[in-house]
Hints:
The complex is a heterodimer. By secondary structure, chain A is α+β, with helices and mostly antiparallel strands. Chain A has helices spanning 25-33, 35-41, 135-163, and strands at residues 3-9, 14-21, 49-54, 60-67, 73-84, 88-95, 109-117, 124-131. Chain A has a single domain (22-123, 133-163), classed as START domain (Alpha-D-Glucose-1,6-Bisphosphate, Chain A, domain 4, 2-Layer Sandwich). Chain A is globular. Chain B is an alpha+beta fold. Chain B starts with 7 loop residues before the first helix and ends in a 5-residue tail after the last helix. The mean pLDDT of chain B is 82. The A-B interface holds A 1-2, 4, 6, 8-13, 15, 17, 19, 21-23, 27-28, 31, 37, 40-42, 44-45, 126, 128, 130, 132-135, 138-139, 141-142, 145-146 and B 1, 3, 8, 11-12, 14-16, 18-19, 24, 27-28, 31, 82-83, 85-86, 88-104, 106-108, 111.
Amino acid sequence: MTRIDSVKDPEGLTLTVTAELTAPVERVWRLWEDPRQLERWWGPPGYPATFTRHDFSVPGRSVYYMTSPEGERHYGWWSFQSIQPPTALEIEDGFGDENGEPTGDIGPGLFTVTIEPLAGQTSTRMTILSRFSSPEQYEQLTAMGMEEGMKEALGQIEGILAED
Amino acid sequence: MVVLELSDDEVDAIFHALADPTRRDIVARVIERERSVSALSERYAMSFAAVQKHVSVLERAALVRKERRGREQIVHAQTTTIGKARRLLDEYEQLWRQRIERMQSILEEGDPE
């Protein structure tokens, strides 16, 4: 199990998650820089992410979609506010259309990633500070996560039943 | 949002209330201890009416409650609602924790290069 700590600030609606990863800083950076690696961890299980654009620069944008188990595509975008390889980046993240244009009045969220080496350079501390800007954004994000949790549980039950 | 014992309208009210930095600061201060509206308005270099308005938004979201004491209006924190806001964050935290677990599994596969 990875060591993960988090601090919640309910008044400010921010969340800070800190993790110790067993890889050097440059390797962790590639998880963000390389879209093929990014899409393996960004979407929740059952909602794999596909990045159709990933301009890893400032100003630069990414466009992605997460595919629901029913095959529906939920589009999102990133806008890079700051990139300091290989230690810091700041990303605005929101929902959008297939061209990555922000849609509706769902405000974007902002998250700041800090990556720093730990003693011996073989492991890395990654800190993610995120802040919500609207309840709609929050609900869409978590609704996907919750649904996925249910589906996963159901899938496991089906798997067990199929063994008989 | 059933699991959080909050209706959609309540969630909306909480987010709207906390979207403003002055209102977040008011909540943080009244959690510390109760404050009068006039004491708060001195702090923010804002009119009494402006602070009164912010407090009303927080009241509608049930984050604070107001009590009249003589000529003063005293603002208290409603800790149960603040606790619910904390639970909203719990779910988001899970999302990130899962992401980090997936990152670690990718890292454990070794370097592709």
